[in-house]
Amino acid sequence: GRKAWRRSTDPRGPALLESTLSIDRLHRALRKARIPVAVSYHAGTYVCNHAYYRTLRQAGRAGVAFIHVPERANPRQLRRALDALVREVSGGNSRPSGKVKRAKGG
Predict the structure, then answer these.
(1) Which whole number is the average pLDDT over 71-86?
(2) How many angstroms separate the CA atoms of 17 and 10, rounded?
């Protein structure tokens, strides 16, 4: 296939969009939960960057951040990470549920 290398995701849009959530706060929340984490200021050069840019453009005032999840991530660690992020974004007004709710189809 053809790659959109060095091509603008949206020629009519801004050249750069930044996260609408505090990356520093999310980083601290994950470290506090003992999740190995590193901050990057680059979402990637193709699919991830495109998805992040489009989400930021469509989200308006909603909080958006992009998180790469390791391919071989431990499910329990992922759950702890998600709980920590939800608590941080909700201002600490959310407690871990212990169960994942799933939508029923059809």
Answers:
(1) 90
(2) 11
